[in-house]
Amino acid sequence: MSITPTFLPTVATVDLTALVYNLSQFRLMLSPGCDVMAVVKANAYGHGAIETSRTLIRHGVTRLAVFSTEEGVALRQAGITVPIVVLGPIFQEQFGNLFGHQLTPVVSDPSVLTALGQAAASREAPLSIHLKIETGMGRLGLTQDELVALIRSHQFPSSLRLEGLMTHLADADGFDPDATEEQISRFHTTLNIVQEGGFQVPLVHMSNSGGAVRFPSSHFSLVRPGIMLYGYHTLPRTVEAPDLRPVLSLKTCIAQLRTIQPGGTVSYNRTFTAKCPTRIAVLPIGYASGLSRHLSNRGYVLIRGQRAPIAGLVCMDMVMVDVTTIPGIAVGDEVVLIGQQENERITAGDIAEWTGTISYEVLCAISPQIPRVYRSS
Fold first, then answer.
1. Which residues of 99-137 are buried (b: 16+ CB within 10 A; e: fewer)?
2. Cβ proximity of 206 and 166 under 8 Å
3. Please, what is the Cα angle at 68 between 64 and 74, to 5 degrees?
């Protein structure tokens, strides 16, 4: 008995060729001796962490960064063997997964360092860790005073190996560079403290995508690109960004067409009222799939190479668009929410502008339930 292939009305297509291109463009910005630790947290910013990681590794990336131990375990279970650094907070209940799956934790708290050292004492070899230093983000990280006390007390656990020292930039994409320059200066001070304490730290890193482009003095031995790998940036217009290609496109199709007469309304709370006979296309995607409700009556999609405005409130699983001015519309027509169609394009950056957010959130919001289809040339 033959099996009919599953029809997928809504699909996110991930262009792995564009991903590799962005990696190559980003590498051109780096200082000699500085390497890439690719950030694939949040399901690789919505692109699919496993296939994205495999592609990056095939093109020379030797180290990955995730947020949580769960993300790291998922990559290990998919057969990924390169070092994986866990950037987020570590809890004692997660130590077993760190050890069992050979994940490298970032330690941001003296009490966690002590507990991790005790848990690792029975291991045959020291556990490699990275220490995170607070230099101005106001989030995770040891203060300079905590670092000094740790180094000068000679109480760094012998069961741990200080492989890396890191911090995180708070305003790398801001207009005023002074705050970032101050963070770089503070980080140099903490690095000196560690080295004077007798530690040789092979991996030193502080820069995200924007920081790596704008501040060469922040390159050290590693940088942590995230959003630029996926084709976007939030740099000021005064800063020249690398040539980047959006990696992800999001498409659906028209499920139904109807004509609304003057005075007729569309969607919940009747926020759209037709002023003339209006052709409405119903699309099978809504906020449960990651289409922001803030796009209601303000966003656009592409149909037959033209922009069609969203009409009414975005629903949980559907959205309606006004296709009155687009001739030849038919049920089943391709609809582009992110991507290019003929000579028109809508990017995650456009959606971010319409909804008052950033491209990161737009991409990460795309539901994992939407199938990812991977394409490479």
1. eeeebbbbbbbeebbebbbebbeeeeebbbbbbbbbbbe
2. yes
3. 70
Number of H helices, E strands in the chain: 11, 21
The identity of residue 303, as a single letter, is: I
Q: Which CATH class is domain 16-230?
A: alpha beta
Catalytic residue, from 21, 45, 230, 268: name it: 268
Q: List the structure tokens of 206.
A: 């502080």
- Position 142: which residue type? L
* Contacts of 29-35 spanning 24+ positions with Cβ under 8 A: 29/212, 29/213, 29/242, 30/212, 30/219, 30/223, 31/216, 31/219, 33/221, 34/219, 34/220, 34/221, 34/222, 34/223, 35/62, 35/63, 35/221, 35/222, 35/223
| Domain parsing of the chain, residue ranges | 16-230, 248-346
Per DSSP bridges, beta strands 248-253 and 11-15 are antiparallel
| Most distant CA atoms of the chain, gap in Å | 79
Q: Which of 41, 230, 251, 287 is flagged as catalytic?
A: 41
Chain mean position to CA 347: 15
Q: What are the structure tokens assigned to 173, written together?
A: 């994409």
Q: How far, in Å, CA of 133 to CA of 118, rounded?
A: 22
Would you state the pLDDT for residue 7? 83
Beta bridge partners of 161: 128
Q: What is the pLDDT of residues 137-174, one digit of tens each?
A: 999 999 999 999 999 888 899 999 999 999 999 999 99
Average pLDDT over residues 340-362: 97
Residue-wise pLDDT tens digits, 366-376: 999 999 999 99
pLDDT over threshold 80, residue 274 = yes
Q: Clarify whether 41 is annotated catalytic.
A: yes
Listed residue (347, 292, 337) closest to 314, CA to CA: 292
Indicate the CATH number for domain 248-346.
Answer: 2.40.37.10
Q: What is the DSSP string of 304-339?
A: TTEEEEB-S---SS-EEEE-TTSTT--TT-EEEEEE
